[in-house]
């Protein structure tokens, strides 16, 4: 899969062996336009760079761990360095010189590559969840996404078709002034826009990616790095191997280190006890996809979303039926299952969308958050909703052992309420495509789906859990729409006072829960209980990765 490369030009020839990562999470994507799970972003941090990033800090709760810092950008745009206009709707970003692509003849990363990355992010195939944030912020991004989708609808989708649209159409709010300067224009001021630029989906893209479909196997055979490592072997579900990128230079990267001869990712087939035993036996250094320490926010993992676009059973369009589903689930049973499968996280029942530790979290209010009477017979409530003989729903979930155990539990609860559930387990690629509603989605009509939401930034993040669940466009897996919610979203995004924005987002959450458009099931909080191999001396948890360690900052006992 690799092309001939120029001679290495690394600054430090010292290497400290192979950093070995072992299951249980699987990484299926290394394309920034398609990857979004924390474990995938953990890998991307080694191979890709963004304009803005976060610095690893020993204390993840320290404000410095949450504050965005310059990465590819020479500086974080602000009014002090003339990067942020007086209206707070125009950002000028100057690129750091000397950052190179790992191409046969290394060449600089340019502002045009940044623009290309945003155009790829808008493609209608992968429908990255981060689009929900950019659509409501970048000038013209929503229209660009809609025109892109319309241009390829009903046509055989090829890389040439996508590249042709991107070459012929521009995002009004993203443009290059020259090779070193990119400008972002916003519809409205956004205090969190710099954090949005730190998302892996906002990575620059080399021109070579135009020859491949986003997220495809073909693209994974032609990955181009600009971070300290490059992918040399890619077998999702098997072994993924990274080796030092010879085009990377330490003096151009204030965030990452290049410490190892290789970084290997392997999947462990067994459960937590087997993983712990293998780490203790020095078969690996760190668990892959497992948090290494506590971070300020928790994650919503999992929740249920309803298909309100094209359900298999039209009964789910009735909020009364959805409320029966929401009230029938025994969350205490789910907590027990999740704690057994994930002993390294704190797990608790979820009754709101925004988890503790994130802006906008609130305790459920029995008066403001009407819920089904816990003492009422769910079959009677289902009959009152017009289904005295019960009904059948199709539910999809990921095919991991834990997801299957959780799904069987809540499906049994619904069965006791008179709702028979047909469970369908999907592998990661098909589950993603189904939730994104892409052309690669399986030909399956469904009613319920399992989803997981994590916070891609940890400060000023009131919208990160709610915005992907509402509105038009990609990122809204169930297609929920409500004019009242749309109005509240606009007011939240327009709010100049963060306290007002939080209040509006909390109103959005109340309406979502009152309509039972989403059923929160569990919150998880990262801890420092995860096992690690005997060589590990430091593994810094990153809040932006839901507590997963920054692999570029790992220290082993063999360090000199």
Would you kindly provide a written description of the structure presented here, covering whatever features stand out?
- The protein is α+β, with helices and mostly antiparallel strands and 560 residues long.
- It has helices at 38-47, 63-66, 111-121, 131-135, 141-152, 159-168, 193-197, 217-220, 272-280, 319-328, 331-341, 378-384, 401-416, 428-436, 483-494, 498-514, and strands at residues 18-24, 52-54, 68-70, 90-94, 100-101, 107-108, 174-178, 181-185, 229-234, 239-244, 262-266, 286-288, 299-306, 345-349, 391-398, 419-426, 448-453, 518-520, 522-526, 536-538, 555-556.
- The longest helix is centred in the last third of the chain and has 17 residues, at 498-514.
- The two termini are 34 Å apart.
- The model is unreliable at 1-13 (pLDDT under 50).
Determine the structural class based on helices, strands and strand pairing. Answer: alpha+beta
Largest sheet: 7 strands, mixed
Mean pLDDT: 91
Shape: globular
- Total beta-strand segments: 21
Round the Cα radius of gyration to an integer and report it. 23 Å
Count the DSSP helices. Answer: 16
Question: Which parts are unreliable, with pLDDT below 50 for 5 consecutive residues or more?
Answer: 1-13
Helix content: 25-40%
């Amino acid at each position: 899969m690799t092309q001939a490369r120029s001679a290495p030009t690394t600054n430090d020839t010292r290497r400290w062996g192979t950093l070995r990562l072992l299951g249980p999470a699987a990484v299926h994507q290394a394309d920034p336009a398609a990857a979004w799970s924390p474990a995938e972003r953990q890998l991307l941090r080694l191979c890709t760079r963004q304009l803005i990033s976060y610095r690893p800090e020993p204390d993840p709760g320290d404000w410095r761990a949450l504050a965005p810092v310059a990465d590819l950008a020479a500086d974080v745009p602000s009014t002090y360095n003339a990067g942020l206009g007086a209206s707070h709707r125009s950002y000028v970003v100057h690129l750091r010189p000397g950052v190179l692509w790992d191409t046969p003849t290394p060449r600089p990363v340019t502002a045009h590559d940044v623009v290309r990355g945003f155009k790829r992010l808008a493609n209608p195939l992968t429908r990255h969840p981060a689009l929900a944030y950019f659509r409501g912020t970048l000038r013209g991004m929503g229209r660009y996404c809609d025109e892109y989708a319309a241009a390829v609808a009903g046509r055989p989708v090829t890389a040439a078709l996508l590249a042709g649209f991107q070459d012929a159409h521009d995002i009004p709010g993203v443009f290059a002034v020259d090779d070193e300067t990119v400008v972002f224009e916003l519809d409205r001021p956004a205090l969190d826009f710099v954090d949005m630029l730190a998302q892996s989906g906002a990575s620059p893209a080399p021109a070579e990616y135009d020859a491949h479909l986003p997220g495809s196997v073909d693209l994974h055979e032609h990955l181009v790095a600009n971070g300290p490592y490059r992918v040399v072997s890619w077998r999702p579900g098997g072994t993924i191997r990274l080796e030092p990128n010879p085009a990377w230079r330490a003096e151009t990267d204030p965030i990452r280190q290049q410490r190892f001869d290789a970084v290997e990712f392997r999947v462990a087939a067994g459960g937590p006890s087997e993983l712990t035993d293998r780490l203790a036996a020095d078969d690996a250094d760190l668990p892959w996809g497992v948090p290494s320490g506590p971070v300020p926010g928790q994650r919503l993992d999992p929740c249920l979303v309803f298909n309100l676009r094209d359900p298999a059973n039209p009964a789910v369009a009735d909020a009364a039926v959805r409320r029966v589903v929401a009230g029938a689930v025994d969350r205490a049973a789910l907590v027990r299952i999740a704690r057994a499968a994930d002993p390294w996280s704190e797990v608790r029942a979820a009754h709101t969308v925004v988890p503790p530790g994130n802006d906008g979290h609130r305790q459920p209010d029995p008066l403001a958050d009407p819920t089904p009477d816990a003492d009422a017979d769910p079959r009677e409530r289902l009959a009152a909703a017009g289904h005295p003989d019960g009904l059948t729903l199709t539910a999809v979930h990921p095919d991991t052992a834990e997801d299957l155990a959780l799904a069987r539990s809540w499906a049994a609860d619904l069965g006791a309420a008179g709702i028979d559930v047909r469970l369908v387990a999907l592998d990661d690629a098909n589950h993603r495509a189904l939730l994104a509603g892409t052309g690669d989605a399986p030909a399956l009509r469904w009613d319920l789906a399992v989803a997981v939401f994590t916070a891609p930034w940890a400060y000023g993040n009131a919208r990160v859990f709610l915005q992907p669940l509402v509105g038009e466009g990609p990122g809204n897996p169930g297609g929920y729409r409500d004019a009242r919610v749309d109005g509240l979203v606009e007011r939240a995004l327009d709010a100049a006072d963060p306290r007002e924005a939080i209040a509006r987002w909390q109103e959005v959450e109340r309406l979502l829960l009152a309509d039972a458009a989403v059923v929160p099931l569990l919150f998880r909080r990262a801890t420092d209980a995860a096992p690690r191999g005997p060589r590990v001396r430091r593994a810094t948890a990153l809040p932006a990765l839901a507590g997963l360690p920054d692999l570029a900052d790992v220290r082993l006992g063999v360090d000199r």
